[in-house]
Specification:
This protein is mostly helical and 422 residues long. It is globular. The N terminus is likely disordered.
């Protein structure tokens, strides 16, 4: 049931000269490029495997370093966003991302892969990515936060839908080095000017109305220290951690797993596109629904779909039919997208205010740890056993644990509301 908020809904700033939701579309397209790079690694991994013959644990380990560095950068990025305009940071990140991807095109050893892609590119994606976008949206759209975050985060789905198959086509036609260079040019040409454009027209940040999203009472501004001393923060971090073990294991290994089953590389890449398209629906629809009912049941529904996707992918061993492959992709796209967009909104429900950027950045350390551990562990298990069976079982169990953490957070929230009403 919804919190009982009696205060009148505050007025929120509008960007001048165009409709309020246009900035969301511009930010979403920037995220589509930044995180298109993230998810394109699943097809780049196959190209590197074919050219160099490096083990899957080495290749997956580079992605694990990428996610750890991305996550470690998030608290710093969040803290900077609490002090400077997020769009300024995103523009700088776009420049860094272009340079990093160009440098990636010269990779010739695992060390260079880990340094170039795993560290430099990860830091650039963090600066141009989710935290600046999240802080900007959380400031301007508290009245419809779930929907706004769903729209912005759907840009990640657009990246899967367009950037991943584009990367595969570039690899097939010109090689993976050219693919890196084209991606770098696209990031600079879009992220930098669009961020500067929004920066020049963005309203000044406001914190007075934070937390008063529709139907939810505004919480007291919480510092990082206060958040760390409470159970809700750690439950959010646990949901981030276990949810990303589940989702990122599938995201990173799905293409190479399908290729192992005899599926053509370009067909396997289109699976990522279907995941991306489905995620647009899941993020936008899940965000819209979460503004009207409690967020946690919507989150739990997403977890159920994601765990079902693990089972569906495991069942594709052999010679999978096209309908089964794309059915799996729809399950994953809908499931992971609902969870990915709602957790930051759930954090905002509890920890809104001038320290939100730093708090959510710290929470995303759990996301980074899960994103690093899941794919690396799956690669190591495959190298040791020649099978993904154990890895998929761990992914499913992790999804269940993420759902349990989210539901426990709901129990504590409702108990606190009941205590205040007593």
């Amino acid at each position: 049931m919804r919190d009982n908020a009696t205060a009148a809904a505050p007025r929120y700033p509008r960007y001048p000269r165009y409709p309020r939701y246009v900035p969301l579309a511009l930010i979403a397209l920037s995220l589509s490029l930044a995180y298109g790079v993230w998810y394109a690694y699943s097809v780049i991994l196959v190209a590197l495997l074919q050219e160099y013959g490096w083990s899957r644990s080495v290749l997956a380990g580079a992605f694990s370093v990428f996610t750890l560095v991305h996550g470690a950068a998030n608290p710093l990025i969040g803290s900077l966003c609490d002090r400077i305009r997020p769009m300024r940071l995103m523009a700088a990140g776009g420049v860094l991302l272009g340079l990093a991807l160009w440098a990636d095109s010269y990779i010739s050893s695992p060390l260079q892969l880990y340094l170039g892609f795993g560290i430099f590119t990860a830091a650039a994606v963090a600066a141009a990515g989710w935290i600046p976008a999240l802080v900007q949206v959380q400031r301007d759209f508290q009245d419809k936060l779930g929907l706004a975050l769903g729209i912005v985060s759907s840009g990640v789905g657009v990246g899967m839908l367009l950037v991943v198959p584009l990367t595969q086509l570039l690899i097939d036609a010109y090689g993976w080095r050219t693919a890196f260079r084209v991606l770098g040019a696209l990031c600079v040409l879009w992220i930098v000017p669009s961020s500067l454009y929004l920066l020049s027209r963005a309203p000044a940040p406001r914190f007075a109305a934070q937390g008063a999203s529709a139907g939810r009472a505004a919480p007291r501004a919480v510092t990082l220290g206060e958040a760390l001393r409470g159970m809700p923060f750690w439950l959010m971090l646990g949901a981030f951690f276990f949810g990303n073990i589940c989702s990122q294991t599938l995201h990173v290994h799905q293409v190479v797993y399908l290729v192992d089953q005899g599926v053509a590389g370009i067909v396997a890449a289109t699976v990522v596109s279907v995941v991306g398209f489905s995620s647009i629906v899941g993020k936008t629809g899940g965000g819209w629904l979460s503004d009207r009912v409690d967020r946690e049941p919507v989150y739990l529904a997403g977890i159920a779909l994601m765990v079902a996707a693990v089972a569906a992918l495991a069942a594709l061993a052999g010679a999978p039919a096209a309908w089964a492959i794309y059915g799996y992709a729809i399950l994953l796209g809908l499931g992971y997208s609902v969870t990915a967009s709602l957790i930051p909104a759930m954090v905002s429900d509890r920890f809104s205010g001038p320290h939100f950027g730093l708090i959510v950045g710290m929470g995303l350390l759990g996301s980074a740890a899960g994103s690093a551990l899941g794919p690396w562990m799956a690669g190591a298990i495959f190298d040791a056993t020649g099978s993904y069976r154990i890895a998929f079982a761990i992914a499913a169990a992790s999804g269940i644990l993420a759902g349990a953490a989210g539901w426990r957070a709901r129990t504590l929230r409702l108990r606190a509301i009941a205590g205040q009403a007593a």
